Amino acid sequence: MSPEEPKRGPLGGVRAALPEQAPAADPLAPVLPRGGPVAVPDPGAGTGPAASCPLGACDGSGWLIDEDDEARPCECRRRRIERARTSGLVGSLPKRYRGVSFERPPVSDMARQPGLSATVGAVRRYCETIGEQLDAGRGLWLMGGPGTGKTTLAMLASKAAIEAGRTVAIYSTPALLARIRRTFAAEGGEDGYLAFFDRLVSVDLLHLDDLGAERTTEWVLEQLYAIVDRRYNDERSIVFTTNLEEPELTRQVGARTVSRLVELCDGNPLPLFGEDRRVELAPAAAPPQPS
Ligand SMILES: Nc1ncnc2c1ncn2[C@@H]1O[C@H](COP(=O)(O)OP(=O)(O)OP(=O)(O)O)[C@@H](O)[C@H]1O
Ligand SMILES: [Mg+2]
Which residues line ligand 1 (CB under 6 A)? Predict the structure, then answer.
């Protein structure tokens, strides 16, 4: 462990404040809020007779009464509790990706390109069955070179989850790790960190962009492992993008983390082939100025 890294706490957490890092200038700025621990309201609150069950299953009380007069919790109650637990997690897409749709370029173009159509089809099936996928804790693993459309496709999954009323946290992985460091340093030490960790592992979908782009240190590997392992154990979905092929990703983030991601994503990275489309989209270089 290098001297500037924190000591480890439970869940791979940190015990000592780190020097503040410059905030990452990243279009995928964290969607999670900057606040401290989230208060968890009484799960029964707001479930009086006036409330209605969004699933149409119970009378709005959050409870179902069976034939033997036994009460059991309705699924809407579980969702309400989850939402309260992760309250403040804003499920909004970064501006650049807000209009993303299968029906519009670039995705409609990608669907026609030989190196991309199968992957677009797989993402489409995932989005069309998003409720089922999240309930089963299944994720997506999008792999390819820079500018091939990975983040664009991953945003479609996050958008589908948001539209289905699920809780989502979208992070670029380096920004997430910087945020964890800052949370520990600024928001009440280990308590702040644990509250943040708890929210992070509780959302229905965690979207990690650019996994493997972070600088590898023992501390980083432990943070990633703690997050992925907890979500794996709880069968909660992770959608992630990476520039790295599996052996390289394993070297970068560790075999135990990748092993869990493989299972969460049903074994398969979805590949994106092709050139960096940003280069094509860039305005033509300005002509040289006379000296
Ligand atoms: N196949 C494509 N056809 C047309 N435009 C595309 C295609 N793929 C990506 N683009 C465009 O290229 C830009 C980069 O896409 P995106 O951010 O999804 O790439 P990425 O694979 O996540 O790149 P990086 O690895 O650098 O993060 C966006 O403006 C996107 O609309
Ligand atoms: Mg990207």
Answer: 106, 109-110, 113, 116, 144, 146-152, 210, 241, 243, 277-278, 281
